[in-house]
Amino acid sequence: MHALRLTPSVSVCNLHRQRGASLLEGIAYLGIAAIIILGAVALLTSAFSGANTNRGYEEVTAIRTGVKRLYMGQSASYGTGDLTATLISAKVFPTSLSVSGASVKNTWNGDVSVTGASANFTISYGNVPSDVCINMVSGSSDWVSVKVGSGAAAAPPIAPATASSACGTGSSTIVWTGN
């Protein structure tokens, strides 16, 4: 009888050389993964910034609505003093703001206060990050004026470039004047 002899088509040496990924391939995979992770982080940062801007708008709008509703029958007079304690008692501030005693804080631990100015009132919203400040100021409408930090008050609409210049790169206090 004839014996069948099977021979492997690939040598054992070649199998050892072809096993797994090379160091260069591994570095390429890690580089691609890093780019994907950085992109995801950038998208999340942008989404959180937009969410914080919306939250800020909603809080300021809720305060304005509450002040107008509370002082509706007062012959358009808000007085000339700090209204914050009265508004806390009337539960005007949204629950997303932190109320402790007679002080109100926003998401960024900035002071939030409301002051009467006769026929007008002001809402001061402190410690707002630059990116959120720019969006809130440029998106402000239906206010008598908007002021950032120690800058001059301006009547809306405020151009994004003007808002960017006013907000700078750090945190700012925004003051809206309404009636």
UniProtKB/TrEMBL annotation:
<keyword id="KW-1133">Transmembrane helix</keyword>
<feature type="domain" description="Type 4 secretion system PilS N-terminal">
    <location>
        <begin position="52"/>
        <end position="178"/>
    </location>
</feature>
<dbReference type="InterPro" id="IPR014911">
    <property type="entry name" value="PilS_N"/>
</dbReference>
<protein>
    <submittedName>
        <fullName>Pilus assembly protein</fullName>
    </submittedName>
</protein>
<keyword id="KW-0472">Membrane</keyword>
<dbReference type="InterPro" id="IPR045584">
    <property type="entry name" value="Pilin-like"/>
</dbReference>
<feature type="transmembrane region" description="Helical">
    <location>
        <begin position="27"/>
        <end position="48"/>
    </location>
</feature>
<keyword id="KW-0812">Transmembrane</keyword>
<dbReference type="Pfam" id="PF08805">
    <property type="entry name" value="PilS"/>
</dbReference>
